[in-house]
Amino acid sequence: MKPDNLQLQPRKMPVQSRSEATVDAILEATLQVLIAEGLERCTTTRVAERAGVSVGTLYQYFPHKQSLLNSLLARHLNEVSQAVIACCGEQHGAALQPMVGALVSTLIEAKLARPEASRALYMIAMDHGGDAILHEVQDKMCRAVSVLLASAADASFAQPQTVAVILITSLAGVLCHAVGSETSPETVHQHLNTMGYAYVKAYAVER
């Protein structure tokens, strides 16, 4: 069966706290195996052993390795998205410069808190449906940032959605490189803050 025809979603969703704990343990074990052994050696058998469950239990939730990897990626990206959306809510109506600074800080905290995890997840981000998950989550973030930019106390935008898309994808692209480099989070923050604010300022009209 070709990868495109595989069932990429979890086999079933956990509905009880014990099931949720099992799924969390399996996903965390998947991440640990990815970090320690790489994508090729990340098998369902190794993951089940690391999680302390049987392979049969793992297959109750994830029909195959790709479903497992996609679920891990979706969990991570949704955590990033939720953090960005929460930041947008907190910064709604703020001035443009602190607004951009808060967005940059949120993304850096989400991506660089566990750089080894981010590096492992980038390996699967564009693999067998990972790109679709990435685009869906980025769309959510861009919509939230578009609303945020439109609420700026000291600026307005003719095309806030376009500015939001380019801002988020640009910041994410730099962070993708940063997790694989030795650049300090403080340096990354300084440069991204300068870049992000300069970009949105260029397309803003002062109120």
From TrEMBL:
Signal peptide: none annotated. GO terms for molecular function: DNA-binding transcription factor activity; transcription cis-regulatory region binding. Keywords: DNA-binding. Residues 20-80 form the HTH tetR-type domain. Residues 43-62 bind DNA. The keyword DNA-binding applies. The keyword Nucleotide-binding does not apply. InterPro entries: Homeodomain-like_sf, HTH-type_TetR-like_transc_reg, HTH_TetR, TetR_C_15. PANTHER family: HTH-TYPE TRANSCRIPTIONAL REGULATOR RUTR, TRANSCRIPTIONAL REGULATORY PROTEIN. This is TetR family transcriptional regulator. It comes from Chimaeribacter californicus.
